[in-house]
Amino acid sequence: MTGRVIRPGTPAAVIDRLDAQDWMAIPAEERFAAAWHLSLEQWTLHPGGKLADESGLSRLVARVRRR
Question: Which of 25, 42, 49, 57 could anchor a disulfide with 61, C-beta 3.0 to 4.6 Å?
Answer without folding.
Answer: 57
